[in-house]
Amino acid sequence: MAVLLVEDLHKSYGPVQAVRGVSFTVAAGEVFGLLGPNGAGKTTTVETVIGLLRRDRGKVLLFGLDPEKDPLSVKSRIGVQLQTVHLFPRLTVFETLRLFGSFYPKSRSPEELLALLGLTDKARSPVEKLSGGQLKRLSVALALVGDGEALFLDEPTSGLDPQSRRGLWEVIERLREEGKTVFLTTHYLDEAERLCDRVAIMDEGRIIALGRPKDLIAEHFREKALEIPLAGLDDVTFFEDLPGVTRIQRDEDVVTLYTQDLAQTFLALSRLSEARGISLRNVVVREATLEDVFLRLTGRRIRD
Questions:
Q1: How far apart are CA 274 and CA 90, in angstroms?
Q2: How far apart are CA 258 and CA 204, in angstroms?
Q3: Mean per-residue pLDDT over the chain, rounded
Q4: Does domain 2-217 have CATH number 3.40.50.300?
Q5: By CB neighbour count within 10 A (0-12 exposed, 13-18 middle, 19+ buried), where does 45 fall?
Q6: Of 3.40.50, 3.30.565, 1.10.287, 3.30.70, which CATH number belongs to 222-287?
Q7: Where in the chain is the domain with CATH 3.30.70?
Q8: Could you tell me the pTM of the whole model?
Q9: What is the per-residue pLDDT across 66-108, written as a single tens digit (0 to 9) for each?
Q10: Nearest to 293 by CA among 240, 214, 227, 237
Protein backbone atom coordinates (compact mmCIF):
# COMPACT_ATOMS: atom_id res chain seq x y z
CA MET A 1 0.00 0.00 0.00
CA ALA A 2 1.29 3.46 -0.88
CA VAL A 3 1.75 5.77 2.09
CA LEU A 4 2.75 8.58 -0.27
CA LEU A 5 1.67 9.21 -3.85
CA VAL A 6 3.12 12.07 -5.89
CA GLU A 7 2.06 12.72 -9.49
CA ASP A 8 3.37 15.43 -11.83
CA LEU A 9 4.48 17.72 -9.00
CA HIS A 10 5.57 21.22 -10.00
CA LYS A 11 6.88 24.03 -7.82
CA SER A 12 8.51 27.30 -8.91
CA TYR A 13 9.95 30.35 -7.19
CA GLY A 14 9.24 33.12 -9.66
CA PRO A 15 11.06 32.19 -12.87
CA VAL A 16 13.02 29.38 -11.18
CA GLN A 17 11.47 25.93 -11.66
CA ALA A 18 12.60 24.02 -8.56
CA VAL A 19 10.50 20.88 -9.17
CA ARG A 20 9.50 19.91 -12.71
CA GLY A 21 6.93 17.14 -13.07
CA VAL A 22 8.09 14.78 -10.32
CA SER A 23 6.18 11.50 -9.80
CA PHE A 24 6.81 8.61 -7.41
CA THR A 25 5.21 6.50 -4.68
CA VAL A 26 6.47 5.37 -1.28
CA ALA A 27 5.20 2.10 0.19
CA ALA A 28 4.37 1.43 3.83
CA GLY A 29 7.44 0.31 5.78
CA GLU A 30 9.82 1.38 3.01
CA VAL A 31 13.00 3.44 3.34
CA PHE A 32 12.82 5.63 0.25
CA GLY A 33 15.72 7.85 -0.76
CA LEU A 34 15.53 11.05 -2.80
CA LEU A 35 19.08 11.64 -4.02
CA GLY A 36 20.75 14.52 -5.74
CA PRO A 37 23.20 17.40 -5.43
CA ASN A 38 22.44 20.60 -3.57
CA GLY A 39 19.96 22.61 -5.61
CA ALA A 40 18.41 19.57 -7.28
CA GLY A 41 14.99 20.26 -5.74
CA LYS A 42 15.02 17.68 -2.94
CA THR A 43 14.12 20.03 -0.08
CA THR A 44 11.43 21.78 -2.12
CA THR A 45 9.93 18.37 -2.89
CA VAL A 46 9.88 17.40 0.79
CA GLU A 47 8.39 20.71 1.94
CA THR A 48 5.71 20.56 -0.76
CA VAL A 49 4.84 16.92 -0.07
CA ILE A 50 4.28 17.53 3.65
CA GLY A 51 2.26 20.70 3.02
CA LEU A 52 4.71 23.38 4.15
CA LEU A 53 4.74 24.79 0.61
CA ARG A 54 1.81 25.06 -1.77
CA ARG A 55 2.41 23.19 -5.01
CA ASP A 56 1.85 24.93 -8.34
CA ARG A 57 0.21 21.84 -9.78
CA GLY A 58 0.20 18.09 -9.46
CA LYS A 59 -1.22 15.58 -7.01
CA VAL A 60 0.01 14.65 -3.53
CA LEU A 61 -1.67 12.13 -1.24
CA LEU A 62 -0.19 11.23 2.15
CA PHE A 63 -2.14 8.43 3.87
CA GLY A 64 -4.74 9.09 1.17
CA LEU A 65 -5.08 12.72 2.30
CA ASP A 66 -4.12 15.93 0.56
CA PRO A 67 -1.67 17.70 2.94
CA GLU A 68 -2.87 21.10 1.72
CA LYS A 69 -6.55 20.35 2.37
CA ASP A 70 -6.22 18.29 5.57
CA PRO A 71 -2.95 19.47 7.17
CA LEU A 72 -3.74 18.65 10.81
CA SER A 73 -4.67 15.03 10.08
CA VAL A 74 -1.50 14.56 8.05
CA LYS A 75 0.86 16.31 10.48
CA SER A 76 -0.40 14.28 13.44
CA ARG A 77 0.84 11.12 11.69
CA ILE A 78 4.28 12.19 10.49
CA GLY A 79 7.61 13.37 11.86
CA VAL A 80 9.78 15.87 10.02
CA GLN A 81 13.43 16.90 10.25
CA LEU A 82 14.34 19.84 8.05
CA GLN A 83 17.78 21.23 7.27
CA THR A 84 17.06 24.47 9.12
CA VAL A 85 15.68 24.25 12.64
CA HIS A 86 14.56 27.08 14.95
CA LEU A 87 14.23 26.16 18.62
CA PHE A 88 13.98 27.90 21.99
CA PRO A 89 17.67 28.56 22.70
CA ARG A 90 17.44 28.61 26.51
CA LEU A 91 15.42 25.44 26.95
CA THR A 92 17.49 22.38 27.71
CA VAL A 93 17.58 19.44 25.33
CA PHE A 94 15.39 17.42 27.73
CA GLU A 95 12.87 20.27 28.07
CA THR A 96 12.73 20.69 24.29
CA LEU A 97 11.93 17.02 23.75
CA ARG A 98 9.31 17.05 26.49
CA LEU A 99 7.70 20.20 25.06
CA PHE A 100 7.49 18.85 21.51
CA GLY A 101 6.23 15.50 22.78
CA SER A 102 3.30 17.28 24.44
CA PHE A 103 2.05 18.36 21.00
CA TYR A 104 1.17 14.79 20.02
CA PRO A 105 -1.49 12.34 21.29
CA LYS A 106 1.30 9.83 21.93
CA SER A 107 5.03 10.38 22.11
CA ARG A 108 8.35 8.72 22.74
CA SER A 109 9.96 9.57 26.06
CA PRO A 110 12.80 12.09 26.16
CA GLU A 111 15.01 9.50 27.86
CA GLU A 112 14.54 7.01 25.01
CA LEU A 113 15.29 9.60 22.33
CA LEU A 114 18.33 10.96 24.16
CA ALA A 115 19.80 7.46 24.30
CA LEU A 116 18.85 6.67 20.71
CA LEU A 117 20.52 9.81 19.31
CA GLY A 118 23.54 9.79 21.63
CA LEU A 119 22.51 12.94 23.51
CA THR A 120 22.09 11.64 27.05
CA ASP A 121 25.09 13.62 28.30
CA LYS A 122 23.55 16.79 26.82
CA ALA A 123 20.12 16.39 28.43
CA ARG A 124 20.59 19.38 30.76
CA SER A 125 22.45 21.55 28.26
CA PRO A 126 20.68 24.59 26.78
CA VAL A 127 19.97 24.24 23.08
CA GLU A 128 22.07 27.34 22.38
CA LYS A 129 25.16 25.52 23.71
CA LEU A 130 24.92 22.60 21.30
CA SER A 131 27.37 22.09 18.47
CA GLY A 132 26.12 21.88 14.89
CA GLY A 133 26.25 18.09 14.90
CA GLN A 134 24.45 17.86 18.24
CA LEU A 135 21.76 20.22 17.01
CA LYS A 136 21.30 18.05 13.91
CA ARG A 137 20.85 14.97 16.10
CA LEU A 138 18.36 16.84 18.28
CA SER A 139 16.35 17.80 15.18
CA VAL A 140 16.17 14.11 14.22
CA ALA A 141 15.05 13.26 17.76
CA LEU A 142 12.28 15.86 17.44
CA ALA A 143 11.16 14.21 14.20
CA LEU A 144 10.77 10.95 16.12
CA VAL A 145 9.16 12.36 19.27
CA GLY A 146 5.57 12.03 17.99
CA ASP A 147 6.06 8.35 17.06
CA GLY A 148 4.71 9.07 13.58
CA GLU A 149 3.93 6.42 11.01
CA ALA A 150 6.07 8.17 8.38
CA LEU A 151 9.29 10.12 8.93
CA PHE A 152 10.67 12.74 6.56
CA LEU A 153 14.39 13.30 7.06
CA ASP A 154 16.00 16.00 4.92
CA GLU A 155 19.79 15.53 4.71
CA PRO A 156 19.88 14.10 8.27
CA THR A 157 23.59 13.20 8.22
CA SER A 158 24.90 16.33 6.50
CA GLY A 159 27.64 17.89 8.63
CA LEU A 160 27.91 14.95 11.02
CA ASP A 161 31.20 13.30 11.92
CA PRO A 162 31.65 9.70 10.68
CA GLN A 163 30.74 8.13 14.04
CA SER A 164 27.54 10.16 14.39
CA ARG A 165 26.67 9.44 10.79
CA ARG A 166 26.95 5.69 11.30
CA GLY A 167 24.95 6.01 14.51
CA LEU A 168 22.14 7.70 12.61
CA TRP A 169 22.22 4.95 9.99
CA GLU A 170 21.52 2.51 12.83
CA VAL A 171 18.58 4.66 13.97
CA ILE A 172 17.07 4.56 10.48
CA GLU A 173 17.56 0.80 10.27
CA ARG A 174 15.80 0.46 13.63
CA LEU A 175 12.88 2.56 12.35
CA ARG A 176 12.55 0.16 9.42
CA GLU A 177 12.44 -2.77 11.86
CA GLU A 178 9.64 -0.98 13.73
CA GLY A 179 7.65 -0.81 10.48
CA LYS A 180 8.01 2.94 10.02
CA THR A 181 8.05 4.50 6.58
CA VAL A 182 11.14 6.67 6.10
CA PHE A 183 11.53 9.28 3.36
CA LEU A 184 15.18 10.30 3.25
CA THR A 185 16.97 12.93 1.18
CA THR A 186 20.73 12.78 0.85
CA HIS A 187 23.65 13.52 -1.45
CA TYR A 188 25.67 10.69 0.11
CA LEU A 189 25.17 7.82 -2.32
CA ASP A 190 26.96 5.26 -0.15
CA GLU A 191 24.38 6.10 2.51
CA ALA A 192 21.54 5.48 0.09
CA GLU A 193 22.99 2.15 -1.05
CA ARG A 194 23.13 0.94 2.55
CA LEU A 195 19.80 2.24 3.83
CA CYS A 196 17.27 2.57 1.03
CA ASP A 197 14.92 -0.04 -0.38
CA ARG A 198 14.37 2.21 -3.40
CA VAL A 199 15.80 5.52 -4.54
CA ALA A 200 14.88 8.32 -6.91
CA ILE A 201 17.83 10.22 -8.36
CA MET A 202 16.94 13.88 -8.88
CA ASP A 203 18.75 16.52 -10.90
CA GLU A 204 17.66 20.01 -11.91
CA GLY A 205 14.15 19.48 -10.59
CA ARG A 206 13.48 16.19 -12.36
CA ILE A 207 13.74 12.52 -11.44
CA ILE A 208 16.19 10.91 -13.85
CA ALA A 209 16.24 7.38 -12.39
CA LEU A 210 14.04 5.41 -10.00
CA GLY A 211 14.37 1.92 -8.56
CA ARG A 212 16.24 -0.32 -6.16
CA PRO A 213 19.91 0.67 -5.86
CA LYS A 214 21.24 -2.66 -7.08
CA ASP A 215 18.82 -2.67 -10.02
CA LEU A 216 19.85 0.83 -11.10
CA ILE A 217 23.51 -0.14 -10.95
CA ALA A 218 22.88 -3.34 -12.92
CA GLU A 219 20.82 -1.44 -15.50
CA HIS A 220 23.56 1.07 -16.25
CA PHE A 221 26.75 -0.92 -15.55
CA ARG A 222 28.08 -4.36 -16.29
CA GLU A 223 31.62 -3.10 -15.91
CA LYS A 224 33.99 -2.97 -12.98
CA ALA A 225 35.85 0.21 -12.15
CA LEU A 226 39.61 0.72 -11.92
CA GLU A 227 40.63 3.91 -10.11
CA ILE A 228 44.17 5.05 -10.92
CA PRO A 229 45.89 8.02 -9.19
CA LEU A 230 47.67 10.00 -11.90
CA ALA A 231 49.04 13.19 -10.42
CA GLY A 232 50.71 15.36 -13.04
CA LEU A 233 49.59 13.35 -16.10
CA ASP A 234 47.70 15.58 -18.55
CA ASP A 235 46.81 13.26 -21.43
CA VAL A 236 44.86 10.13 -20.46
CA THR A 237 43.25 9.33 -23.82
CA PHE A 238 45.63 6.42 -24.39
CA PHE A 239 43.68 4.45 -21.75
CA GLU A 240 40.76 4.24 -24.20
CA ASP A 241 42.69 1.70 -26.28
CA LEU A 242 43.13 -0.80 -23.42
CA PRO A 243 41.22 -4.08 -24.00
CA GLY A 244 37.86 -4.25 -22.21
CA VAL A 245 37.68 -0.52 -21.47
CA THR A 246 34.30 0.97 -22.39
CA ARG A 247 34.73 4.44 -20.93
CA ILE A 248 37.14 6.58 -18.93
CA GLN A 249 36.43 9.37 -16.48
CA ARG A 250 38.91 11.83 -15.04
CA ASP A 251 38.33 13.64 -11.75
CA GLU A 252 41.27 15.85 -10.82
CA ASP A 253 44.17 13.43 -10.22
CA VAL A 254 42.21 10.17 -10.47
CA VAL A 255 41.26 8.37 -13.66
CA THR A 256 38.49 5.77 -13.54
CA LEU A 257 38.47 3.06 -16.19
CA TYR A 258 35.22 1.11 -16.66
CA THR A 259 36.03 -2.31 -18.04
CA GLN A 260 34.09 -5.39 -19.11
CA ASP A 261 37.19 -7.58 -18.88
CA LEU A 262 39.10 -6.77 -15.72
CA ALA A 263 41.83 -9.38 -16.19
CA GLN A 264 42.70 -8.28 -19.75
CA THR A 265 42.52 -4.60 -18.87
CA PHE A 266 44.78 -4.99 -15.86
CA LEU A 267 47.29 -7.09 -17.81
CA ALA A 268 47.51 -4.46 -20.56
CA LEU A 269 47.62 -1.71 -17.93
CA SER A 270 50.61 -3.39 -16.27
CA ARG A 271 52.49 -3.40 -19.57
CA LEU A 272 51.52 0.20 -20.22
CA SER A 273 52.69 1.28 -16.78
CA GLU A 274 56.18 -0.07 -17.47
CA ALA A 275 56.37 1.72 -20.81
CA ARG A 276 55.10 5.06 -19.51
CA GLY A 277 56.40 4.92 -15.95
CA ILE A 278 52.92 4.97 -14.38
CA SER A 279 52.71 3.72 -10.78
CA LEU A 280 49.99 1.16 -10.09
CA ARG A 281 50.73 1.02 -6.37
CA ASN A 282 47.46 2.67 -5.29
CA VAL A 283 45.10 1.34 -7.95
CA VAL A 284 41.63 0.52 -6.58
CA VAL A 285 39.36 -2.11 -8.14
CA ARG A 286 35.68 -1.81 -7.22
CA GLU A 287 32.15 -2.54 -8.35
CA ALA A 288 30.09 0.24 -9.90
CA THR A 289 28.06 2.36 -7.46
CA LEU A 290 25.16 4.79 -7.48
CA GLU A 291 27.76 7.54 -7.81
CA ASP A 292 28.77 5.99 -11.13
CA VAL A 293 25.12 5.85 -12.21
CA PHE A 294 24.68 9.55 -11.44
CA LEU A 295 27.89 10.34 -13.29
CA ARG A 296 26.78 8.41 -16.36
CA LEU A 297 23.33 10.05 -16.41
CA THR A 298 24.44 13.63 -15.79
CA GLY A 299 28.11 13.79 -16.81
CA ARG A 300 29.22 15.01 -13.38
CA ARG A 301 29.59 13.77 -9.83
CA ILE A 302 26.85 14.45 -7.34
CA ARG A 303 28.93 16.89 -5.28
CA ASP A 304 30.19 18.94 -8.25
A1: 65
A2: 26
A3: 91
A4: yes
A5: buried
A6: 3.30.70
A7: 222-287
A8: 0.86
A9: 999 999 999 999 999 998 888 999 999 999 999 999 999 889 9
A10: 214
